[in-house]
Specification:
This protein is an alpha+beta fold. It has 4 helices and 7 strands. A 5-stranded antiparallel beta sheet has the order 1-2-3-4-5, with helices on both faces. Strands 6-7 form a two-stranded parallel ribbon. One of its GO terms (molecular function) is FMN binding.
């Protein structure tokens, strides 16, 4: 005759309550940690964004954000098919003087997806610098878009006309030379710059 196993339901309930209490305490600690660190993380992100804006528009000491509603209208005006590619824009000031604009874009036509970037343009329509904020391009190819050899080509180009891409040197006028083996990435970054140029042309009117 088989042995009948008796279940101690009191013990089962006791263990269940212990596990429930442990889970509740862990959840509370996680929530508390998130609450305590959220402000710090947010401030770190804000500081990093400010530093990036100052990197591409060094003359500015303060930045005034263009309202999201206005930016959305600009995106429509320039015929942007993907509104998410225009992320934000700031007016750069030195005291009360407007010294330029920074525009964050995320062109989606990179080789491995979107390339998040920032373009700085002076008040008189000259590109000051660009910086790549996030990218997943191929190491040794498209990832070279983060290197000065490529980025610095955009300096001193006119924001009043389209920047174009050529495959062979020398790139003259308002053209830049593509990264060897990474024409798609080069065109994506240039597209992001051209979005910024169009935003500048409207904001500076």
């Amino acid at each position: 005759m088989a042995n009948i196993v008796k279940i101690d339901w009191k013990e089962v309930i006791r263990l269940g309550l212990i596990l429930l209490a442990i889970s509740a305490v862990a959840a509370c600690l996680l929530a508390l940690t998130n609450y305590v660190t959220a402000g710090t993380i947010e401030q770190m992100n804000a500081d990093a964004n400010t530093a990036a804006r100052q990197e591409v528009l060094a003359e500015a000491t303060d930045f005034e954000q263009v309202p999201a509603e206005e930016l959305a209208k600009i995106g429509t005006e320039i015929g942007l098919e993907k509104p998410e590619e225009l992320m934000e824009a700031y007016i750069g000031k030195n005291g009360s003087e407007v010294v330029g604009y920074t525009v964050k874009t995320a062109p989606s036509n990179g080789y491995a997806g979107s390339v998040e970037m920032l373009t700085g343009i002076s008040a008189d329509g000259v590109i000051q610098a660009i910086t790549i904020l996030k990218q997943n391009e191929t190491p040794g190819l498209g990832a070279k878009s983060t290197e000065p050899e490529f980025k610095d080509q955009f300096k001193e180009k006119s924001a009043l006309e389209e920047v174009t891409v050529v495959k062979t040197a020398p790139a003259t006028g308002n053209a830049i030379q593509a990264i060897t083996g990474a024409t798609i990435t080069s065109k994506a970054v240039t597209y992001g710059v051209n979005i910024a140029n169009q935003v500048y042309q409207i904001l500076s009117k």
